[in-house]
């Protein structure tokens, strides 16, 4: 019985160059606090196997990262091991189907380690610092965990973004992505096959202006960093016993889930886009959207529909000026409860304070 247990479990949170994980033996690696687990899994009845990370303590199997999402194993023969300074997945013919592609010193022994944050890292064997040769947090799948960053590393040029599943039980790269677009004011865009379908609006120092649900709470802190080294967004949990995650669904919804132990289920805290007015460029130029009216698209003051027959089903033309612009008489008018326009090409005087 003791030998049987040991054959099906690795109690340590590291994988050395002399060890390996295989599908047939059902071996896994568990983080020190038993929060996350790494191993091979098959999400559906189809013969496709993946290496992934999921919550260990949560009975409902919830995957937060997948290594070989676009190169699954076609049968139940596969191995994870360290080879030539890299973490690799080999198929039944010992062909490498996935690799971390690091360029460390192959003469120095390395280990793969699963942290309690859910981060799978590669480091030198004799170095326990936060200097990693590679980390899964740099290559998100569809989920953002606490301490994981989305955005640009300006030193390396790495862009961390989310890509949805193809379907709920198929981790293959799907149609939707969630990326940080940098400019004078950075904001997130949701893309469907590289075409924008939603944007958050710029960061105003507290939240992304188009996401009022992203307000402070008792258990989560949102953080946006912009300096010479990075432009990134992350969030932190104030309680280690609370599990929460952000996810880009296969239907194009950016969602926050929090685990409720008393009911043993994930609770949806909020989701965006919230309604039809959140759709990118729905009403066209010089217009605004009001979900409480019919039709929902309207021209701003001083403008009229570009096409007189403008209807809800044909709003791409937007609006045009009623009279030519007169810089001596025309003035700006305030519009309340609006998401600021796309800020990729704006000019900002940064000497002006937030107030």
Automatic annotation (TrEMBL):
By its UniProt entry, which Gene3D superfamilies does this protein fall under?
Bulb-type lectin domain (2.90.10.10)
Q: In what way does this protein cross or attach to the membrane?
A: Single-pass type I membrane protein
Q: Which molecular function term from Gene Ontology is one that the record holds?
A: carbohydrate binding
Compartments annotated for it: namely: Cell membrane
Q: Where is the signal peptide?
A: none
Q: Which GO terms describe its biological process?
A: recognition of pollen
Give start and end of each Bulb-type lectin domain: 14-135
Q: Which GO terms describe its cellular component?
A: plasma membrane
Which UniProt keywords are listed? Answer: ATP-binding, Cell membrane, Disulfide bond, EGF-like domain, Glycoprotein, Kinase, Lectin, Membrane, Nucleotide-binding, Receptor, Serine/threonine-protein kinase, Signal, Transferase, Transmembrane, Transmembrane helix
The answer to keyword Nuclease applying to this record is: no
Tell me where the transmembrane regions lie. none
Any idea what this protein is called?
Answer: S-receptor kinase
Name its species.
Arabidopsis lyrata
């Amino acid at each position: 019985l003791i030998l049987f247990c040991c054959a099906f479990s690795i109690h340590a949170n590291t994988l050395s160059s002399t060890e390996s994980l295989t599908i047939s033996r059902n071996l896994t690696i568990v983080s020190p606090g038993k929060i996350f687990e790494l191993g091979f899994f098959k999400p559906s009845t189809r013969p496709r196997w993946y290496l992934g990370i999921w919550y260990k303590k949560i009975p409902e199997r919830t995957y937060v990262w997948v290594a070989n999402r676009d190169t699954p194993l076609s049968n139940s023969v596969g191995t994870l091991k360290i080879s030539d300074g890299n973490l690799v997945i080999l198929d039944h013919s010992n062909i490498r189907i996935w690799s971390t592609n690091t360029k460390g010193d192959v003469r120095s022994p390395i280990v793969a380690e699963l942290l309690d944050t859910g981060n799978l890292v590669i480091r030198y064997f004799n170095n326990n610092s936060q200097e990693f040769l590679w980390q899964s947090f740099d290559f998100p799948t569809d989920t953002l965990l606490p301490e994981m960053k989305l955005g640009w590393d300006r030193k390396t040029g790495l862009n961390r973004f989310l890509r949805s599943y193809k379907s709920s039980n198929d981790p293959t790269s799907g149609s939707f992505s969630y990326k940080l677009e940098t400019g004078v004011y950075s904001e997130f865009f949701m893309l469907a096959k590289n075409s924008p379908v939603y944007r958050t609006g710029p960061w105003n120092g507290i939240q992304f202006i188009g996401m009022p649900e992203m307000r402070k709470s008792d258990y989560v802190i949102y953080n946006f960093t912009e300096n010479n080294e990075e432009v990134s967004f992350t969030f932190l949990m104030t309680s280690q016993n609370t599990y929460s995650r952000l996810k880009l669904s296969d239907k194009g919804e950016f969602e926050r889930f929090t685990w409720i132990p008393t009911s043993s289920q994930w609770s949806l805290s909020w989701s965006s886009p919230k309604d039809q007015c959140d759709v990118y460029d729905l009403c066209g130029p010089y217009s605004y959207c009001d979900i409480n009216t019919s039709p929902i698209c309207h021209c701003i003051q001083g403008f009229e529909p570009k096409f007189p027959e403008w209807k809800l089903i044909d709003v791409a033309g937007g609006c045009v000026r009623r009279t030519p612009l007169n810089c001596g008489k025309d003035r700006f008018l305030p519009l309340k409860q609006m998401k600021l326009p796309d800020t990729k090409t704006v000019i900002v005087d940064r000497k002006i304070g937030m107030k």
